[in-house]
Amino acid sequence: MGTTRADWRRTVFRLSKIPSRTSSHGAVRALVAKAMEIPAESVKVFSLATSLTPWEMPPSKVATLMFLKPPAMLGRSDEGQAEWVLDADEYPVLDSHFWGLTPLNDVEPEKHVADCIAISGLASHPFGSWQPRGDDKTFMWIRDLAPIYVPGLRTILYGYDTRLAGSHSFQGISHLALGFISQIRANGGALDHARPLVFLAHSLGGIVLKDALCRLANSQDNSLERKILTRCKGAIMFGVPNLGMEQSHLLTLVQGHSIEHLVQDLSRESATYGYLSRLERSFSGISKLGEMTFYWVFETDKSPIFDAKTRKMTGPSAILVDPDSATAHRIKESAPSVHPIARNHSEMVKFSRADPNTGPIIHLLRLVCGLSDAATDPDELGAQSASLANLITSPKFRSDDPDSDFLFALDSPDLDLRQTLIANRFGHTCEWIYEHEPFTSWLRQDDGIFWINGKPGSGKSTLMKLIYTDKRTWQYSHNFEDSTCQISAGFFFNYRGTAIQKTLEGLMRSVLRQIIKSLSNNKRTLSFLDSLFETPAFRIQDTSSSRESHLGEPASLPKDSDQLHEAHRYICRVEQMSWPIDRLKEALRSILDQNQVKIRIIFFLDALDEFDGPPAYVCRFLNFLANRPDSSLTTTKLCFSSRPWEEFVSHFGGEMSLSVEDFTKSDIRYFCTTHLIESLDPSQHGPVSRIADEIVLRASGVFLWASLILKELMAAFEGDNVPSLKDLLRLLHSVPTELSDYYHFIIQRIPQSLRWQTYALLELVVRARNPKELSLHYLWKTTLISDSPTYPAALETLKKLSARGHKSSTNEPKRSVLQWGGGLVSMSFGLFTADPSSPTVQLMHQTVYEFVVKLDFKDQVLGPMAKATYENGHTFHFKSLVSFRLTEELIRVHHMDMLDALRPSLDHGAEAEETTGTSCQTFLDSVPDQVIVGLGVGLMDILRFSGAYLYDKFRRDLIRSHVAFATYFRLRLYLRDSLRDQENSLTSPACNKLLLLTALALGSRETHTHQRLLTANFILDNGYNASQESDLFTDTLDPLKLHSWYDPWETHCIDGLDRLTALLLDHNPGGANCPVWGNRNHKSRTDTCRPIHLALPTTAIWLLGHGINPNELDSLGRTPLDVLMLDRVRRCQGCTDYSKEFEKTYLHVIRQVAIILIGHGGRRKVASSANWESALRYFQRAGLDTANLSPVLRPLAEMKDRQKKPKPVSKEAASPARPLPPAPPAGYPPPPTAFMTNDGPPTKEKRSLGRAVRRFLSKWH
Q: Which of the chain's ends, N or C, has fewer CB atoms near its CB within 10 Å?
C-alpha cells in the first residue's frame, strides 16, 4: 500500500550531504525549498549537525526535518520508496529510513565529553521508535533533551534493517554486530581524537551491542577495533532480552522466511544452553574487566502481541521481556544498576516532553558519561581536572633521557628479521626494474622520492629486497667524480612482528645504526663522527675510571661473580631499552642537518602500509627525511613501497612512482612455466603454455595468487593422476581471484573434522607473544591440547604424544601443522635459534594475517560451532603454559635472557579473560594442588631474578593455592567465579595470607601496574583482610626500602607502590596517621614518623585530601619537607648502588611531593637554607626543573632567621580533625576543595573522593 499525504506530514526525514557552508536552520529550509519547489515556510528543521564521515573535506551537514505541506515530489514516489536525491548543489539526499549513523547535534571540541549512540530494537524505526505515540512527531527526547541535560554530549542514531514482515534478509545477530562495528569504524570511531562512547540500546539493539563488544574485545591489541573498545564506557539497556523473550508470536510472523533463525536466537531456550547464555557470560566478563558502566531498565507492563488473523499487533497482552531477562538476574544482586519503567516493551523508550521517566534516565546517562548529579557547566569540565593536574607535573615513571652509553642498544636482532624472511626473487624475475628509465633516472639524481606501490601480494617486498641488496643500485647512484660519502639505509616494516619491527622507533634505530656504521668505515667522515658523539643525543659515558679501579683490586670470586651477574643483567636491560622517539629524531636530525662533510643517504623503506600507526604520521616522517635545509651538506632521497592507500596517494601521488602489477605479467608467466616444466614429466608439458597464459590473465599482476594457484594445479598431478587441460582449466576457474576470497575458499576445503585444529593453530600464531611460541613442536602440542577441557585431559594427550616417540622428530608435527594450516602457513628454519634445523611456523603473507584477524574469522572457520566457542589463541597459550611450558621453562631459567623470553607468555591468562570475557576456571581448578605449589615456587624464582628481596623470604609461601595462582596471573574473572562458587575463598584458611604481595608481583619487570592494582582492589573489596600483611603498608610508603642492592627496581614500580599505598588507605583509613618507622638504618628503631613524611605523590594527595596536616612532626621534630630534604634526598644522593635511571626517577617523584606539600601550605622547621640549596642543586644536576621550588623556598630560607620560630605542632593539631592548612603561596594552585575536609576522620564518602583522585591520576599518568 502506498504512503498517503497524511503519513508524510507525520514523517521525520533526514537530509544528508548538505553543503558545509550551510550553517543555520534557515539556510537548510531555503535549500530544501529551492530544490523541491515549495515554500520555505512549509519546511520545519529540528536539528543540524556535522557529518561523521572523516574523509569529507570540508565535512557536509546532516539535518532532521518535517514538511508541513508534503512536496509533490513525495507524492510521485514509488511504493516503499524511502530515499530521494535533491536537485541542488552537491546533491543532498533526503531519506526516511535513517540507516547508518545520524548525528543530531554538534559540540565544540573543547567541551566534547562523549558520543552517545542510540540503537533501536527489532522491527523498529531508528528515529520513530524513540518518539512518543500520537500525531505530534515534532519531539524526540534523544535529539531535543539529552544534549541539553548532558552538556558536552553528541547524540547519534544508528539505523539498521530489522524488519520482520516481508523480510527476505538472512542476516543473523552476528551480521548485525559486524555491520555496527563497520559503521563506527567508517565514521571515525577509531581515530585518535575520537571521544568516549556511551550507548542507549533497546531490545534487540542491546544484544547487537553485546555481540559487538565481545567481537571488539577479541580483536588484536593494536587493531582499530581495539581502539574502539577502549572508547566504550557503558550503556543504558532498555528491555534487552539477555535471557530470551516471548517470541512465539514473532515466529508466526516470520515462519518460512530466512530471518527466522534470528528470532530463534532470542528464545528462552537460547538463554539456557544456547547463544544468549554464552553471549551473556562473555559480555559480563568483558564489561567488568573493561570497567564499563551498564544500567538495566525493565518494563512492568504487558505488551500486545502479533495476531496472525489481523496481521497486526492486536493479540492478547503478554510480558515480552521479563525482569530477570532484562537484567540477566542482576535484579537479585545489583539493585543500583537496575531500574523499572511502568511501560510496555515498545513504549518504555518513547518519552514525551514532560515524561516523568525522562529525569531518571537522564540521570543514568550522566552517570555513564562520568558526570555528577549537579548542574554542569561544560566550561568547567576541563577546569576541574586541570586544577588537580596542576598539583604535580606530569609524572612519567621512566627515564626520558637515557644515558648515551646505551648507543649500542640501537641494535636488535629483530630489526633485520623481516628482510631475512622476505622471499628472494625467482630466477630472473624483477629484472625490469633496472630497465625502467624513470627508476634509473631517480637513482642518478641527488635527491627525490620514488614510490613503488601495488596490490597486496603483487611482490612489492621482494622487489624492494632486490633493489636494496643488488649492487646495480649502488652503481647507478654512485658518482665517481664526487667525494660525497654515499650511504644506503633500509628498513622493512612487519606488522606481524614485534613492536620494534612496525614502529618509527624501530625504523630510526635501524637506519641510525646503518648510517653510523657506514660513517665509521669511511676515513673522510671520522672527524665528523667524533664531533657527533659529543652531542647530547650521542654522548657516550666514559667507563675507563671504573674499569681501572677494578684492575688494581685482588680477585674475589664471590664479589666478582656478583658483579658479572649484575653486568649481565645490565646488558639485558640495555638490549630491551626503549629509545624515546624525540631522542632518536634528534640523533637523526644531527646527521641530516650537519654542515661538516658531504653525505648522501638513500633510504629504502618497505611496506609503509604495515606501519603500526596512522599513515599520515609516517608520511610526515618521510617528508622530514626528504626535505633538508639549504645549510645542510647531507642530501637524501627515498625509495619506499606501500599499497596505494588514499593517504599515500594524497602525499606522494605527484612523485615518481610505479605500480608493480603493471610490470609482472612476464614474470608470472616465466615463474609458472618454469615451475610446471621442472615439476612435470615431458609427456605432461603439453598444456603448460595455455595454463601459464590463463594464470597470468586471472592473476592480474598479483604474484602471490599465481604461486598459490600453481600449488593447486601441481597437486592435481600427484600420484598417477594426469588431468586433462579441461580439468585444469575448470580447477583454475573455480578459485576466486581476490586473495581474501581465496583464503575463505581454502578454509572451506579443509575437512570439518580438522576445522578446530585450523582455528586453534591460526589463533595461536596471531596471538603469539615471543618467538618460542612460533616453534613447530610448541604449536603442534598446543594445538592438540587446545580442546582439552581439563588439565588431566591435556596431560593425557601429551603423554600419548610422548609415548609415540615424536619428541625429536619433525615429520609428524610438520605434516600435521601444514595440513591444519591448509596452505596459509609456511615453515622457516633457524630464524630464532642458533640451530639451522629448528623449524618455525609463520603466516604465509600479511594478507593472511589480515584475513585471520577479521572479526568474522571464527565464524568462517567453525561455522555454527562459532556461537558455542569463546576460547581464542590466548586461552590455548595459557593452557600450554600451565600444562607443560612453565615446567619446561622454569627448569632452564638461570639467566635473565631466558627469563625475559618467558615473561611475555605469562600474560596470556589475563589476556584470555580480557578478550573472551570468560575464565579458565574449569581447566585451572582441575590442576592438582601439588602442581600449583610447584609452579608457584618456580614463578617466585622469576621475582628473585628481578631482585625483589621480599620474595626470597616468602617464595615458598606466596603461591600455595589456586586462588593465589590466579592472583599472580591477574585472573580477576577466575577470582569472581571462585567467589561465586565459594563465598569465603579469599578468607578461608586454605587461602594464602600474602595475596596482596602476590597480586603486585613487586619486582616483576612486567608489572602491569594498573591491572595488578585492580586485582589487589578486587580481593580487598571481597573480604580479604589486609592486616595479614601489616608490614606491606610500611614498606610501600618508601620504595628505597624495597630497593634491592643487586638489581635496581624498574622505575614503574614506584608508581605501583604509590597507588597501592593509596589503595590500602582506602580500605584502612585508620592508617592515615599511624606511626611508621622512618629510618631503616636506625638500629634502635625509635625514630618514627607519619605516612605523610614518606608519601609518594598520589598518597600525598590522598592524605592531604583527607585532612592530614602538611606540617605534621615526626619523632625528631621534622616536618615532611624537612624529611624530604634531610633524609629522602640525602639517602638517594649518598647511595651508589642505585641505577642512574632509578635515581633520577625517584628524585623526580619526591620533587613532585615537594610541590604538593608547598601547594598545601607545607613548611620546613629543622632544615636550613644550606640544606635546601643543596637539594636544589642535586635536582638540577639530575636535569630536573626547580623553577617551581626556588621562588617559594628560597625567600623562606632567607627570612627564617628573622621570623619567630613556629610552635611545635601538638598531637591534637596533627590529627585528621585539624583545620585546613593555610593558603598556598602565590603562583601555586589552591588544593581542590572537593578533596579536603575538616570534619573528622575519613568517611565512606571521603574515601570515594580518594578513589576519584586515583582514577583521575591513573588515566592522567
A: N
